Amino acid sequence: MEMEKVPKAGYRIVGLPIVGIKRAVSLDNVAFPVKLTRSLLKARSVLRTFRPDVAVGVGGFASGPLLMVASLLGVPTLIQEQNSHAGLTNKLLARRASTICVAYPGMEKFFLQRKIKFLGNPVRRDIIDSGSKRAEALTRFGFEENRKTLFVMGGSLGALSINESISAGLKQIIGAGYQVLWQTGKAYIEKAREVVAHVDSGRVKVFDFIYEMDLAYAVADVVVSRAGALSVSELCLAAKPCILVPYPAASEDHQTKNAQNLTRQNAARLMPDNRAASELVEAAIQLLGDEPKQMELKQNIAKLARPNAAAEIAQEVLKLIP
């Protein structure tokens, strides 16, 4: 995705051949040492040409070779851990990192306390005032003002368990008097359109991807979402009552840990992926009809928002420039 999005934003990007290593025994891992070596050599070449003042990594296997080589070349490094459970790459890089920015409290169990800056995750600033855009959002999506809206969000790639649950229960949601904004991801969009066509209702709007996320949050009364780090941070900033369905195959089950961090503070509801098919739609309908619970979740999740995270992380980067 980065190889497509970054150039569109007007920036040059250089890719590395690195791939993630499978935790289970897999033939795919046979090629890992070769790709890692090639990535380290390419990272060294890029760094010697570009000569950065500081190197920043946001986790994931792709940032590993670059930050490792940068630290060996004496370039100050900053890592940003977006999840409540540190990923393997960031744990390996942490020893040589100059600064570690985190989005959740309690991260000293993974990193040295003296390096940690608790700042949150950078998210789109237009989400901050999304609440003031409700009228615009209703017009954009063609929804009725006096009906509650369920926003179903599985991310750009979609979420099969969420999509199938909504497909099976769409008539039930509409029958309860609600309207649905549904982001399916590219893989599920055609099937979703078929389902919506059979519902015969103007109260369901389905998209493979929604670019105006500020308007999507503005129109939503309840959100169903995966529990990726940035999605959770956006939900906190938008202060939306939500049901989180963690992706069970996420590395080290970090999405479940992200969701649990919110549920411990009564700031969200957690729906295990293996129960979504039988329970998700009923849970969504129940929450849509419970305004006191919505308000309670809204107030609690808003307390976790870090609206200045991007600027504060940028300041930490600037501090590292010699």
From TrEMBL:
Molecular functions per Gene Ontology: undecaprenyldiphospho-muramoylpentapeptide beta-N-acetylglucosaminyltransferase activity
Leader sequence residues: none
Pfam family, one: Glyco_transf_28
Domain Glycosyl transferase family 28 C-terminal, first and last residues per copy: 149-306
Catalytic activity: di-trans,octa-cis-undecaprenyl diphospho-N-acetyl-alpha-D-muramoyl-L-alanyl-D-glutamyl-meso-2,6-diaminopimeloyl-D-alanyl-D-alanine + UDP-N-acetyl-alpha-D-glucosamine = di-trans,octa-cis-undecaprenyl diphospho-[N-acetyl-alpha-D-glucosaminyl-(1->4)]-N-acetyl-alpha-D-muramoyl-L-alanyl-D-glutamyl-meso-2,6-diaminopimeloyl-D-alanyl-D-alanine + UDP + H(+)
Limits of the Glycosyltransferase family 28 N-terminal domain: 5-100
Pathway in which this enzyme or protein is active: Cell wall biogenesis; peptidoglycan biosynthesis
PANTHER family referenced in this protein's UniProt entry, alphabetically: GLYCOSYLTRANSFERASE, UDP-N-ACETYLGLUCOSAMINE--N-ACETYLMURAMYL-(PENTAPEPTIDE) PYROPHOSPHORYL-UNDECAPRENOL N-ACETYLGLUCOSAMINE TRANSFERASE 1
Intracellular or extracellular location(s): Cell membrane
Function noted in UniProt: Cell wall formation. Catalyzes the transfer of a GlcNAc subunit on undecaprenyl-pyrophosphoryl-MurNAc-pentapeptide (lipid intermediate I) to form undecaprenyl-pyrophosphoryl-MurNAc-(pentapeptide)GlcNAc (lipid intermediate II).
Enzyme Commission numbers on file: 2.4.1.227
Family note: Belongs to the glycosyltransferase 28 family. MurG subfamily.
A cellular component term, taken from the record's GO annotations: plasma membrane
GO BP annotations listed: carbohydrate metabolic process; cell division; cell wall organization; peptidoglycan biosynthetic process; regulation of cell shape
Keywords assigned: Cell cycle, Cell division, Cell membrane, Cell shape, Cell wall biogenesis/degradation, Glycosyltransferase, Membrane, Peptidoglycan synthesis, Transferase
Residues where UDP-N-acetyl-alpha-D-glucosamine binds: N83, R124, S156, I210, A229, L230, S231, V232, S233, E234, Q255
Listed InterPro entries: GlcNAc_MurG, Glyco_trans_28_C, GlycoTrans_28_N
Top-rank lineage group of the source organism: Bacteria
Main localization, broad class: membrane
The keyword Cell division is annotated on this UniProt entry: yes
Protein's membrane topology: Peripheral membrane protein
Protein name in the entry: UDP-N-acetylglucosamine--N-acetylmuramyl-(pentapeptide) pyrophosphoryl-undecaprenol N-acetylglucosamine transferase
SUPFAM superfamilies listed in its UniProt record: UDP-Glycosyltransferase/glycogen phosphorylase
Native species: Persicitalea jodogahamensis
